[in-house]
Design brief:
- Two copies of one chain form a homodimer.
- By secondary structure, chain A is α/β, with parallel strands linked by helices.
- The first copy, chain A, contains seven helices and 13 strands.
- Chain A has two domains: 10-120, 3-Layer(aba) Sandwich (Cobalt-precorrin-4 Transmethylase, domain 1); 123-259, Tetrapyrrole methylase, C-terminal domain (Methyltransferase, Cobalt-precorrin-4 Transmethylase, Domain 2), CATH 3.30.950.10.
- In chain A, the strands form three sheets. In chain A, strands 3-2-4-1-5 form a five-stranded parallel β-sheet, with helices on both faces. A five-stranded mixed β-sheet of chain A has the order 7-8-11-9-10, with helices on both faces.
- In chain A, helix 3 (64-76) packs across helix 4 and helix 6 packs parallel to helix 7.
- Strand 7 (138-142) of chain A pairs antiparallel with strand 7 of chain B, so a sheet runs across the interface.
């Protein structure tokens, strides 16, 4: 072992961005490089491209509370711990799980300094691959009903679509949640025309990235899986005819109900 | 002049993050380092800490369309142009303005490759300074009614608060928009208790950063200005008693209407 044990332990929850080394901030890369222990979902630990001989504590995707407590215990024992998330650690990721553990066990980890280091979020990365679909007011919603009731999700989709937000969807589907994404498109479709632009991105930032611009009517729900992120346009989101994918979609900064596709 | 003129011009819209060098991605730093021309709001150009002898084209904050067209013209003339935004360039920033110009002048810049390089968004950076207030579904809303009618903003605030989203507010106020922020809190207050946590951050990531956790009732609207970003909690957002600021607020990943502050 060449890693040093820090005299006073500490913990950072970091986001390495959505897969691409060029999207990991220097702050996060430095913290990973100096860590003695990396904790996280095994898939994300495998994406860490920073040179480090830190000990890696990989675990399954569904044990966030247990993983957070174990990471805090390591820090309490004097280790320099980094909890690794993909994207931004504050969005449907480990930062909330770690702070929740602090809340549930008052006093237990009082002496452990805990920092959250922000990252490039998956929705922003996906948006950047096609231009600027998040250029106006938007909502970010997880479709997972593992930790919240489905009717809360439907209510939020309905409110967001009704108020004409752009909508970014995380965790659109999984093996155990096969129908939710299709139902979400139905709810949104009550407020949007069938030609509303949608951006569908799988493995954004990784070598096998696949990004498509489709519409609410042409989106193939069967092609969506848990490694996919989705953005659904507002009534003003535009696809620019003839442009390459990277600069083909935007939501204008202005908003004019009487002429959504006209000039400002 | 030691800058080289690229044989084929190109344009990138980049976000340098919210001020701190450690939050600027390597992809963005590399693109700035190789640019011949940097275009942007003068305040943001002054924040560029990457070593470069590129020519700087600074302009006022309110000339986005003109700035975007000028940047495309430079790229069309063979220059390697980088349009600099703070935070993420796709969120209430220059990426939308550039793609809108492409849309408005079909054919004019067809041969110019345009890329958007994502960054750490201001809301995510602010969230990270206090823990994980964006850990559950959230909305991002600009309070500027320069480019959209105020009643659209009120409708969105009402929909977002009514569906119990966490709400991140950009452009909360300015010299020309003095009452909007106070009115926004009134609209949200129709759906939230007075003790709802709020995070108020000024100059996040810069040397004079000032971040506070307040409540809907105790927020001093007079202390808010255009360099401030604000996050307003949902009904489940919690402040952890006794924790330092950096790990003091979170919104749980779970949602239980019958016991918002109880265990999952």
């Amino acid at each position: 072992m060449t890693t040093a044990i820090a005299k006073v332990g500490r913990l950072a929850v970091v986001g390495i961005g959505p897969g691409r080394l060029g999207w990991c901030t220097p702050e996060v890369a430095d913290r990973i490089a100096s860590a003695t222990d990396l904790v996280g979902y095994t898939t994300y630990l495998d994406l860490v491209a920073v040179a480090t001989d830190a000990r890696r504590h990989g675990s399954d995707n569904r044990v966030e509370a247990k993983r957070a407590a174990a990471a805090l215990d390591l820090a309490a024992a004097g280790r320099d711990v980094v909890v690794v998330s993909s994207g931004d650690p504050g969005v449907f990721a480990m930062a909330s799980a770690v702070v929740e553990q602090l809340d549930r066990s008052p006093g237990k980890w009082d002496h452990v300094p805990v920092d959250v280091l922000p990252g490039v979020s998956a929705a922003h990365a996906l948006a950047s691959r096609v231009g600027a679909p998040l250029g106006h007011d938007f909502c970010t919603i997880s479709l997972s009903d593992v930790l919240k009731p489905w009717d809360v999700i439907e209510r939020r989709l309905d409110a967001a679509a009704g108020a004409d937000f752009v909508i970014a969807l995380y965790n659109p589907t999984s093996r155990h949640r096969p129908w939710q994404f299709g139902r979400a498109l139905e709810v949104i479709g009550e407020h949007r025309t069938p030609d509303t632009p949608m951006i569908v991105g799988r493995d954004v930032g990784r070598p096998d990235e696949h990004v498509q611009v489709v519409t609410l009517a042409t989106c193939e729900t069967a092609a969506i899986d848990m490694r996919t992120a989705v953005i659904i346009g507002s009534s003003t989101t535009r696809v620019v005819p003839g442009r390459p994918l990277a600069s083909s979609v935007y939501t204008p900064r202005w908003y004019d109900r009487s002429a959504t596709h006209a000039t400002a």
